[in-house]
Amino acid sequence: MPKACSSSSARPALRRNQACLACRKRKLKCDASRPHCGTCVKQWQALISVPPPVGYAHPPEPQCSYDPIEGLAIAPDVDPTEKIRILEEQICMSANHYTLIGLSLTKPFSTTQKPAQPDTPANLGLCVTTGALSSARVQPSSGSPDSQGRSFSGSPDLSAANQPPSMAEMDMLLNGWDVDLPRRDVLNHYVDVYFRCDPCSTHVLHRPSFLASLDLHPRDPNFPHSAILHAICASASRWVSNDTVTLPDGTRQDKFAERHVRKTREYIDKTMATGQDIFQVLQACLLLSWYFYQEGRWVEVWIFAGFQARVAVPLRLNYPGTFSAQSSNAPGGYLPPPRDFRDLEARRRTWWMTVMFDRIVSMGGWVHSIDQRDIGTEFPVRLIDFEADSGIASNPQDLASKDVFIRHPPEYTDSFLLFLKSVMLFGMVTDYNTRSSLREPAPPSKNQNPFHMHGFQELDKLVCLDFLESFPQAFRHMGLTGDAGILDTDLYMARIAPHAAAITLHNPYINFSDPSSVSTARCVTATREILRACYKLSETSLETTRLHPFVTIVWYLAAVVQIQLCKYFIEIGDAARESTVWGEINALRFAMLTYGSRSPIGTRQEKLLQGLMTEIVRMTSQPQPLEVGVPLYPFSHASAFSKEATSQDLVCAPLPGAQSFEVPVSMVPPMMPSLPTQSAAADNWARHAIMSPSLAHGTATNMHQHPTALSVSSYPRGY
Predict the structure, then answer these.
(1) CA nearest 611: which of 636, 578, 645?
(2) Strand positions, DSSP E, 299-429
(3) Which pLDDT does position 711 carry in this prediction?
(4) What residue numbers bound the domain in which 436 lies?
(5) Is the same domain home to 143 and 264?
(6) What is the distance between the alpha carbons of residues 677 and 657, in angstroms, rounded to a whole number?
(7) Which Gene3D superfamilies match (predicted)?
């Protein structure tokens, strides 16, 4: 006979197939509670009460599921509070779903359209809001391949507009288009502007194939990675975005750019956790780093420089051929061998742009993230060969090659390669200064002869003379004579960066009281060359803002020397030459502000320079020193050089010589020389003074050139 039901069990019998699948399979009692029955919950709690074995992870929730049968009522013994919670979750999920995909009950698009099927977007009234320069803020439930598996809670709010989309936009979204990107036509415009205007990171990408890949289906594996496209949108916004506000401190606020910066960083965070698409995301990180540099966002610049350097090293990009067979079979480790010439060259260029960025951001005297001795990658080939996919043999030169800085094979030399070599040469100066300061008990003194230091004379000869003199004849101009008025910014930078390196090398030893000081002559000569290049650019119709942002640092270093020289002329009472130097300082300031109209790094460097000028502004007898030699542009004369600007609101960049002249000599770092405070040797800098033929470290021949006299006529005004 069957057992009588227990009096304590008042639960009604479940209907057929109402129990969960797990309990039915194991033939266990089930209360049919949702979302997880009591039996499955107890088993799951018992399972997670003990640590999992190695390589195994406990399930995050009970493995309890039900047949997909609509209309089944919840078991009557379910707690009412739990039932309310379940219903509230269902309502919230539905509300979020409708909000994200923009569902609203609207009238049909057109009365002449073919009646839509019950489940088509037209019947549901799917509305997509788009703007001229903003993306369609829509998030389909499926998502694109690149954007799945991550919450985009940081995206801007939906637009209040509620305009029906075109069928082309509907097809684009339903076919897997990343909804956080602009429309295809707008995106193509941003990409075109990026390649035409951005002076920094365009060398990383293979332009012809990249532009062709934009026409592919969004789900095609050769379609550009969304992280790269977001980084391009952020960089190109500097040239086309109208939603930009520049604050008094030089900060540029651009909602469109910041939205794409956030999206790029989300992909970077995802790759840090999963390693997915690591090379493409590394390229996007590089593009975003240059964007931060142009914005003058120094903390992010420094963090990203170290991050991408540490990512590139495990990928073995620092090996010859960007690949190493050693330990290449490590699980989840390194990139496979390059597929073809284009892939190989893209890796080389990504690596060298990473190294270049590390060198540029470390020029304030910071230790490099990548030691030069650990770089075995060949230099890239010419840009024309890369874009033509010519398949030319690899560049025979690397950093270990003999005379790499003074030998430039014609078939492997272009403006970018010369600029790259100049930056690497600047990095050698940074290494020398940094390592010298680490091992010396006292900071450099203006009274010591640096040519007695080990390795200094060889580095001085390479930086100040041999490198620039070795340029091929076709690259001995300033890059201002290009066809159709195009500025060759790489060649322009390759010509002036060595002068900035010379200033950095000799700046600690400047002594205007000593007419035989080689370091003083080197810095003055380098400053004049930088000023001459600045004047030549101002004589053309080319845009200063198209230059590489590193040019603002070069101008800053030249201005630092001029400030020291101006103070010396004030102390000896030479008002004529002081006025000339004021004009040169203001010319450099004006160039920074002009560049800052597009990239905030220019405005920030000019404000930093004003902090260094505080003492000479107070000491000078000039009636309006900040306006000497400045072009009288209405928009800048009243506000650009405002005297109210002080050093209190500076956003300091990691650059040498950022201290005030009032800092005690014992506190001045190696990169900032102590200036002469006595005018006893004023006659040594007379109007027709020349260098003595007998120098502390040899003869005048060793210096290879005589500095011209510091006279009024020796300073080309050029205004």
Answers:
(1) 645
(2) none
(3) 30
(4) 410-672+679-713
(5) yes
(6) 18
(7) Zn(2)-C6 fungal-type DNA-binding domain (4.10.240.10)
